[in-house]
Write a structure and sequence with these properties.
The protein is an alpha+beta fold. It has one domain. 31% of the residues lie in helices and 15% in strands. It has 5 helices and 7 strands. The strands form 2 sheets. It has a 5-stranded antiparallel sheet. A two-stranded antiparallel sheet has the order 1-2. Helix 3 runs parallel beside helix 5. The radius of gyration is 21 Å and the shape is flat. The chain starts with 17 loop residues before the first helix and ends with a strand.
């Protein structure tokens, strides 16, 4: 497969460099290093000397973390109510969403020491995913002051629904199909449709609406 690469530092015939005229966009998410550093400093996971990761295990954990960060939803791909897919960094890197590898079978025949190492690596990945995904969804939620009026959510919006029992690189997305307002006219609860067509209900304070890309 051929990959066309453009040298943005090369001067054109008019002596203009593309890097000098590009508009620098905002940082959508913190860098990988800062995320790992915060996880290392504030994690409550107890590390023992025998539980330290070797080079291969650390590489496995880092690749899993890279996949999790590149799978985060950035915004809705369209306003189509039947489209439940979100734009992710994976779309920009590979042209499609990052697909998580299937969970491997527990190596019960490899010996107790290998089984313990496999569980340890899986635990480190799951711990990072659980903490980081929760913090990312909280960052998407706009929380204004109590005396400031906010616009109601609308039907057709794509939202992220926080769930604690999801596997790494899995995000629960839903389209709002119905809103339920209180006596003051403010929407408190909405009905959501998943990509598989299932309908479920959630309170709006548990949702993180995604912008249209």
């Amino acid at each position: 497969m051929l990959l066309v690469v453009f040298d943005a530092s090369c001067k054109t015939s008019s002596q203009v460099v593309l890097n000098d005229i590009l508009m620098v966009g905002p940082t959508i998410q913190e860098e990988l290093y800062s995320s790992l550093h915060r996880f290392r400093l504030h994690s409550t996971y107890s590390y023992e000397r025998s539980a330290l990761l070797n080079v291969e295990e650390l590489a496995t954990v880092l690749v899993g973390i890279e996949g999790a960060i590149n799978s985060r939803p950035l915004g809705a791909l369209s306003q189509d109510p039947s489209d439940g897919e979100a734009l992710t960094p994976g779309h920009l890197l590979t042209g499609g969403p990052v697909i998580a590898a299937p969970a491997l079978r527990t190596p019960d025949q490899a010996g107790l020491s290998f089984l313990r190492r496999w569980r340890h690596v899986s635990s480190v990945r799951q711990t990072f995913w659980r903490r980081w995904s929760r913090e990312y969804v909280l960052g998407l939620q706009v929380r204004g002051k109590w005396h400031e009026e906010k616009a109601n959510v609308e039907e057709g919006q794509l939202v992220v629904v926080p769930e604690d029992n999801l596997l790494p690189q899995q995000w629960l997305l839903g389209r709002i199909v119905a809103t339920h307002a209180g006596e003051d006219g403010k929407v408190r609860v909405v009905d959501l449709r998943r990509s598989d067509g299932a309908i479920f209900r959630r309170a709006i304070h548990k949702l993180a609406p995604l912008p249209i890309c």
